[in-house]
């Protein structure tokens, strides 16, 4: 979760033998400034820590996480706090705090439960619309609809940097009761333009396989979520055409991902590094070589909401080649990892009987 940091010396000068004269002179001039910056960092970290503890305490007192005035206000404050940009030393101080470490797992679980409640509420609200036009209007009035457009646009741009052709078949694991990312992705594939593109020009198009009808397979282990999403998409008319659904655990035996160009994994699928690695191992084994996998991660204080993924572990790198990592600022909470499924070694060896090494694919 933590990035490599350069720790401040707090104004204490190192031994003369350890530094050059220029370094020593700079240290003498900058000692007071560094002490001031460290004090400011400590103060900011303490303020953030106290606010996180306060928010956790308020959430723990709620009887449920159904959308409502108090629930919305608390989570809005949490998201706003976690989207603030601070220096790495301040962030590290927050995450080193023992009380913060203790509340992070239950806080993320609360966020997950609240997100499900919010999505389920809106899926039912959209489904209850008296017409297709009204259902689409309600969908696009969802509080975070523009955020999903922005996030999906980031993902598609990162994906196109790895392979400059729009995919024909995409799977989304952990789609939930309100599959907004899938709908934004599907609309982009149909129009061959980025989500939220409001340009009048018809010339803004991305290359695509014209022989394929765009298809998004939404996968979730929760049968109620799959049913809710399926019924809602049916209400959306042509906007929902191309949305398919399957109730299955991530990487389950019944899951066949070989024909998919891209597989996306939601941020809340897998709650720890070990779970993420196990998930990638199972999913990658079901994908074809060269296909792309998009995983959502987090950075900075955003890691309070979603777990951060370390893609540099041996378990990860022996299965995928990292193409790009995108850390959006602003209101987009999730970060994006785009990776390519590596060429698998042939078990029977090559023509000379030797076992080839896994080769690195250029993204």
UniProtKB/TrEMBL annotation:
Pfam families linked to this entry: NAS (PF03059)
Keywords: S-adenosyl-L-methionine, Transferase
Keyword S-adenosyl-L-methionine listed: yes
Keyword Transferase: yes
InterPro entries: Nicotian_synth (IPR004298), SAM-dependent_MTases_sf (IPR029063)
Annotated GO MF terms: nicotianamine synthase activity
TM region positions: none
Superkingdom assignment: Eukaryota
GO BP: nicotianamine biosynthetic process
Family: Belongs to the nicotianamine synthase (NAS)-like family.
UniProt cross-references to PANTHER family, sorted A to Z: NICOTIANAMINE SYNTHASE 3
Protein known as: Nicotianamine synthase
Natural source organism: Monosporascus ibericus
């Amino acid at each position: 979760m933590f990035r490599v940091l350069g720790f401040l010396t707090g104004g204490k000068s190192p031994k003369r033998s350890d530094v050059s004269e220029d370094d020593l002179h700079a240290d003498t001039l900058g000692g007071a400034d560094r002490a001031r910056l460290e004090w400011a960092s400590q103060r900011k970290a303490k303020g953030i820590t106290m606010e996180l503890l306060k928010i956790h305490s308020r959430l723990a007192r709620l009887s449920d996480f159904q959308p409502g005035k108090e629930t919305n206000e608390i989570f809005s404050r949490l998201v706003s706090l976690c989207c603030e940009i601070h220096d790495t030393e301040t962030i590290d101080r927050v995450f080193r705090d023992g009380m913060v470490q203790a509340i992070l797992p239950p806080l993320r679980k609360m966020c997950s439960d609240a997100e499900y409640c919010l999505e389920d509420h809106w899926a039912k609200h959209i489904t209850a619309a008296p017409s297709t036009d009204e259902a689409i209007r309600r969908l696009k009035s969802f509080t975070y609809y523009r955020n999903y457009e922005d996030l999906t646009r980031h993902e598609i741009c990162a994906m196109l940097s790895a392979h400059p052709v729009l995919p024909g078949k995409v799977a989304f694991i952990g789609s939930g009761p309100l599959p907004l990312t899938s709908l934004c992705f599907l609309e982009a594939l149909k129009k061959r333009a980025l989500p939220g593109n409001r340009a009048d020009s018809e010339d803004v198009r991305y290359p695509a396989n014209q022989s394929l009808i765009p298809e998004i397979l939404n996968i979730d282990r929760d049968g109620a979520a799959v049913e809710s999403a399926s019924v809602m998409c049916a209400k959306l008319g042509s906007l929902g055409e191309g949305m398919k659904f399957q109730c299955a655990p991530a990487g389950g035996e019944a899951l066949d991902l070989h024909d998919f160009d891209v597989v996306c994994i939601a941020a809340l699928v897998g709650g720890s590094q070990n779970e993420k690695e196990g998930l990638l191992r199972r999913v990658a084994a079901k994908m074809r070589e060269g296909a792309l996998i998009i995983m959502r991660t987090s950075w900075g204080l955003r890691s309070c909401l979603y777990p951060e993924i370390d893609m540099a572990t041996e378990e990860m790198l022996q299965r995928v080649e990292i193409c790009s990592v995108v850390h959006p600022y602003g209101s987009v909470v999730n970060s994006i990892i785009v990776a390519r499924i590596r060429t698998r070694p042939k078990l029977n060896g090559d023509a000379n009987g030797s076992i080839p090494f896994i080769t690195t694919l250029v993204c």
